[in-house]
């Protein structure tokens, strides 16, 4: 790896998903020379990467840990939503239901989100044991990815399309002092991490009813959600299928998803005709990791992957940790 000197402030990032892009923006704004190398770049529509297909509801998760990273991201997105609506960050009311716990003692984020309020048990959908609402956010990837890419291009971050097979290859290609491994699913091979796993998701986009402007999610024994898109339409989902690598939509799932959505929303999408109203079926593969996210330094490599279906929720928090690790490493070597 090229040595870190006052003249070599180059950081190479493997991966142009939401973790790689947010890391790049914090790094370039801190004065580093950033090169991104990725097999898939913003604008590509392929299931080989997850970021374009994410539901990207910025609902923290009570059980996945790394709460400070989630909280950092949420605060950053609130700032973005206020500063620039072109970022695709939209404020909306979020309703969450769970069917696997009896109270909200595990809901650590109830103190950090505005207008948090519990839902009476008589108002819960069938099967749900707790529910609550709060003022939250959703990100529209079709707006956010072009927005942040343009920010990076304006700051002269270089994008290189390439499939990097090793950290040595990345070093040779970029002459970087430090390499950030934000390769998502690629980390299984690149970092020899057997705990890195793929979790298949499938959703469908339907036209938006004028009066539906909130997000609803039910978790526990199932994974069901409704997320309005800033660019139009509503995402109905979903599933969580580890080890399923089928890239084509499972048409039988459409009926199952719609049934669960209507059960959760008390029939608010009973007007949907699957053959008529579904404008797009969406399949994506979440880059998860047993044990949760990995953000740590290993020599001249900084690993940042494993967020699974919470890539947007973790993104700025992981990026901020990446920046701190780069700065600490850099100071130690000049």
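^ structure tokens above, recovered residues below v
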């Amino acid at each position: 790896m090229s040595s870190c000197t006052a003249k070599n402030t180059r950081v190479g990032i493997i991966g142009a998903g939401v973790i790689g892009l947010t890391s790049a923006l914090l790094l370039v704004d801190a004065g580093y020379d950033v090169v991104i190398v990725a097999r898939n770049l913003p604008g590509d529509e392929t299931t080989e990467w997850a970021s374009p297909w994410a539901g990207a509801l910025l609902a923290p998760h009570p059980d996945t840990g790394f709460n400070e990273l989630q909280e950092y991201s949420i605060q950053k997105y609130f700032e973005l939503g206020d500063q620039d609506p072109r970022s695709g960050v939209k404020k909306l009311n979020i309703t969450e239901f769970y069917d696997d716990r009896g109270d909200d003692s595990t809901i650590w984020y109830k103190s950090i989100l505005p207008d948090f309020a519990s839902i009476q048990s008589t108002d819960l959908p069938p099967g749900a044991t707790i529910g609550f609402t709060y003022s939250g956010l959703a990100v529209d990837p079709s707006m956010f990815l072009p927005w942040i890419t343009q920010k990076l291009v304006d700051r002269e971050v270089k994008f290189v399309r390439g499939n990097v097979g090793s950290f040595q290859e990345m070093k040779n290609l970029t002459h970087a002092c430090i390499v950030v491994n934000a390769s998502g699913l690629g980390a299984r091979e690149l970092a020899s991490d057997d705990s890195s796993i793929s979790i298949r998701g499938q959703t469908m986009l339907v036209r938006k009813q004028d009066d539906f402007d909130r997000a609803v999610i039910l978790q526990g024994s199932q994974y069901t959600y409704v997320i309005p898109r800033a660019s139009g339409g509503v995402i109905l989902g979903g599933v969580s299928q580890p080890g399923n690598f089928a890239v084509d939509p499972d048409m039988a799932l459409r009926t199952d998803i719609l049934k669960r959505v209507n059960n959760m929303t008390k029939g608010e999408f009973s007007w949907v005709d699957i053959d008529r109203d579904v404008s797009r079926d969406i399949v994506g593969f979440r880059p998860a990791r047993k044990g949760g996210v990995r953000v740590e330094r290993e020599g001249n490599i900084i690993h940042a992957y494993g967020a699974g279906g919470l890539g947007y929720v973790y993104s700025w928090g992981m990026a901020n940790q990446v920046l701190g690790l780069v700065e600490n490493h850099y100071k130690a070597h000049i």
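The chain has eight helices and 15 strands.
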